[in-house]
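One example given next:
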Amino acid sequence: DYSVIPDRIEAGTFLVAAAATGGHLTLKGVEPKHQGALFDKLQKCNVQLKVDGSTVTVSPNGTLRPVEIVTETFPGFA
């Protein structure tokens, strides 16, 4: 048996879109180990993250803060 890994960029796009619009979003089937750089930036932006196994929830945590982002190869920010 083999399972294809979740797409970290697609998951990240949904998480960032929810955060940018002040929304609440729960994604299932995420591999948190692949999202370390994104989670770090979201937390620095003042976004609340809850990780429970392969489920990730983002929600507003007050006013968003700006951060500097530099793209890199994995495991960096996509």
